[in-house]
Amino acid sequence: MTPAHDLAARLGRALDTRPETLRACAQDFGHIVRGAPLGVLRPRSAAEIKDLLECAGPQGIPVSVRGGGHSLYGQGQADGGIVLDLRAMNRVGPVTDDQVSVQAGALWRELLAVTLPHRRTPAVLTDYLGAGIGGVLSAGGLGGATHRHGLVADQVLELEVVTGAGEHRICSPDRDPELFHAVLAGLGQCAVIVSATLRLVPAAARVRRYCLYYADLGGCLADQRRLAEEQRFPYLEGQARPADGPGWQYMIEAVAPYDGPYPLDDRTLLAGLSYDPAAVETEDLGYGEFAHRVDTDEEALRATGEWLHPHPWLNLLLPHDSAESVVRAVLADPAFRDLRDTGLVLLYPVLSSRLRAPFFSRPSGEVLYLFALLRTAPPGSPETVAAMLAANRAAYELARSRGGVAYPVNALPLSDADWQDHHGVRWPAFAEAKRRHDPHLVLARGHGMRF
What we know:
By secondary structure, the protein is an alpha+beta fold. It folds into three domains: 3-86 and 438-447, 2-Layer Sandwich (Uridine Diphospho-n-acetylenolpyruvylglucosamine Reductase, domain 2), CATH 3.30.43; 92-202, Uridine Diphospho-n-acetylenolpyruvylglucosamine Reductase, domain 3 (2-Layer Sandwich), CATH 3.30.465.10; 206-406, Vanillyl-alcohol Oxidase, Chain A, domain 3, CATH 3.40.462.10. The chain is built from 15 helices and 17 strands. It has helices spanning 3-11, 19-25, 46-59, 108-115, 133-139, 146-149, 177-183, 217-230, 266-269, 287-291, 295-304, 320-332, 382-401, 416-423, 427-437; strands at 39-41, 63-66, 82-85, 92-95, 99-103, 120-122, 156-163, 168-171, 191-202, 206-214, 235-242, 248-258, 281-286, 314-319, 344-351, 367-374, 405-406. Strands 13-10-12-11-15-16-14-17 form an eight-stranded antiparallel sheet. It starts with a helix and ends in a 14-residue tail after the last helix.
C-alpha cells in the first residue's frame, strides 16, 4: 500500500491521485520548480483538515495549502506529500457594515463581488484579485492603501485555523493572541487558515486616478515619501518605466475616492510636488472598475500564453536612505535589461508604523519602499530562468547589504542562514511558534525553512 493509499484509508475517504491532478498541483504561477504530491485533498470543512493533519503529522507527510495557486517558487507545493486544495471552501458572508467572514479558499475578487453591493470593501487590497484569501493573509499582503492601513493581514479581526498538530482553534487579538499573530504573515508555518473575519470600510462610488511622471528618481521618491507621510491620498503606488533612450522614468499613481460630483481641486491635491506638469494623466473610474484594473492585463497575458510562462519575480522592501541607490543599481544592471521590454517594475512607499503583524519582516526606519521586479522568461529555456534567478540573488544581496529585506513571495531560494537573517531578532520566537503549533514540521515545507 502506498503512503497516499494508507493515508486515504486512515481518513476514510479517497485522495485524488489521478496523474493529471498531481501534474497540476506540481506546478504554480512561477512555472519554475515542480514537486509532485502523493495526493490532493479537497476539504469542505475544518473537520476534514483536522483529520488530515492528525494523520499526516505523526507520519511526517508534508502538507501544503493551495488556494489561487499563485506561488512563484514552489511555496504551495508538497513534494511527496499532500496538497490541501481549498478552492471548495470559498463561502463569503455574512456582510455587516464593518466586517465580513470569508473562507480561505475564496479569491479576493469573489469577496469583492459580495461586499461591493453593500458599498463596502476591505481597507487594503492587493493589485491582483485572483489570489486566494488564505495565501495573501499568510504572506502579509501589500497594496496601495498599506501606507495608511497597513498590511492586508492587519485587517483581520478573527481567524479560524487548524494547527499543524491538528487542533481546530478560533483566535483573535484577544483570544489566543499568540497563535493569531503567528499565523498572520507567518507563511503558513503554524496553521492552515480555514476562514477569516475582515474589517470593512465604506467603498466610494468613484475614484480619480492621477499618474504623475518624473525624470528624476530622487524627486519621485521624495514626493512619494511626502504623500505617504501627509496621508494626502488613501491609495498610493508607483512604477519605474522605460524612458526614450537607455534610461528610466518614474511614475506616482495616486487615487482619490469620491461620491457624487468630484469635490476636490486637482491643483490643491497635487500642490508642492515636483512632477512634470506636461505629462499628468487623470481618469475617473467606478470603484469596482478600479479595483479590477489588473483583470484586463491577466486576460491579455492568458491570450498570448505568457500567463503560463516562467515568472522569476522578485519583491524587496528597501529603507528610505538606500532606496535610490539600490533602485538605480538594479535598473542599470544588464541582467535586468529585459524589464524594459516585457516586465513591470513597482516602486511605492510603505510606512513601517502601519505594519502590525509581528512576523512580517521589514527594514528599519519609518519610510520604506516596495521594489518589485516582475518579469517573464521564455518557455523551454532553463538557462534563461537560471540566469534570472542568479540576477534575483544578486539584487537581493545588494538590497540586504544596504538594509533591505525580501518580501518573501519570490522566485528566490533562501538558505537556513538567509531565513534566520530575514527574521532577525524575531527568529527564535518564530521557530518556537513553529515547533509549538506544528510539532511534526509538516506544514508549508515549500518555503525551504528548517527549524
